[in-house]
Each structure stands twice: as structure tokens, then as C-alpha cells.
Write a structure and sequence with these properties.
The chain is α+β, with helices and mostly antiparallel strands. It has one domain. About 50% of the residues lie in helices and about 15% in strands. The chain contains seven helices and four strands; from the N terminus they run αββαααββααα. It has a four-stranded antiparallel β-sheet with strand order 1-2-4-3. The longest helix has 25 residues. The C terminus is likely disordered.
């Protein structure tokens, strides 16, 4: 029975990660942000091997969460990215390829060998059929223009995350 507990944890972690808000679009910086967690292999011969597997799992979870977040985004045409991808397998494959090139922003290592990662993908690096058709929420566009007038760069948006650990 105790042998099945680690397997159950490995299988349930991705479900738990999807249940919460594990992704968002930062319209001011025009980046897709997501997070993923990877559980360690408790039967691994060393913590290094367990951590490597956990890192791969965290990246895969972050890619899935980024895709799920993007699927919910609205398009200028009135639909969602998910509806656009539903019938276009070539576009879905192209998007998944772009999501593999995500940039790790923050990595948290846990004492048990688990890892949690925050990643970003610039919206402009997504396929043009999606990047150019995304429709920001009404409040985000006004907020972005007022922010860019008052503070050049992204220093103000990066400051709150810098102190959080």
C-alpha cells in the first residue's frame, strides 16, 4: 500500500496544478506566464537524479498550463484560441513548438527534490495567426497605455515579484 502513495502523488500533482490559476497573460509586457511543478522520483538513486526528473516534469506541466491559459484567451474575431486550435492541427503543432522555447523566470527547489517553475513566453513569439489576433481585455489596453506613459520599461511591473520568495 505504501508503495502506491508516491505513484499517486506523481499522478495527482499535475491535476492539482491545473486546478488553480497556473497561468495568465500579462498584457502590459505582452507575455504569457505559467507555472509548473514536478514531484521527485522517490525511488531515484540520488537527489540529483530525482531533481532532474522533477525539473522535466515541471517544464512539461508549465507548457501544458501555458497552452491551457492561451486556449481561454479571446480573439479579435470573437472566438477563443481554443476554438481556433480545435480544427487546425498544423497550427496546434506550431504553437506547441513555440511553447517548448519558454523562458524560465523563477525556479524553486524543495528539500524533497521537487521543483516549482515560473516561465514566460513573449506573445510576439507565438505563431502570427494567434499573436496578431489576440484581443486584450478592455481594461488591460487602457492600463498598458497609461503605464507606458508614466514609467518607461518594465521596472515597475517587475518590482513586486522581485521581493517575493
Amino acid at each position: 500500500m505504501a508503495r502506491w502513495v508516491p505513484l499517486a502523488l506523481v499522478l495527482l500533482v499535475p491535476c492539482a496544478a491545473r486546478a488553480g490559476t497556473s497561468g495568465a497573460i500579462d498584457w502590459q509586457r505582452r507575455v504569457l506566464k505559467a507555472s509548473g511543478q514536478g514531484a521527485p522520483d522517490l525511488n531515484a538513486p540520488s537527489i540529483a537524479v530525482a531533481r532532474l526528473a522533477a525539473e522535466r516534469a515541471a517544464i512539461a506541466a508549465a507548457q501544458r498550463n501555458a497552452l491551457e491559459t492561451l486556449k481561454e484567451a479571446a480573439l479579435e474575431s470573437g472566438g477563443t484560441v481554443g476554438a481556433l486550435l480545435q480544427n487546425d492541427n498544423a497550427l496546434r503543432a506550431k504553437l506547441q513548438g513555440k511553447l517548448r522555447a519558454l523562458r524560465t523566470v523563477k525556479t524553486r527547489y524543495f528539500s524533497d527534490g521537487g521543483i516549482s517553475m515560473d516561465v514566460e513566453v513573449p506573445l510576439d513569439e507565438l505563431p502570427p495567426e494567434i499573436a496578431q489576433a489576440l484581443k486584450p481585455p478592455a481594461g488591460a489596453a487602457a492600463k498598458a497605455s497609461s503605464t507606458s506613459e508614466t514609467s518607461p520599461g518594465t521596472a515597475s511591473s517587475a518590482a513586486p515579484d522581485a521581493g517575493a520568495k
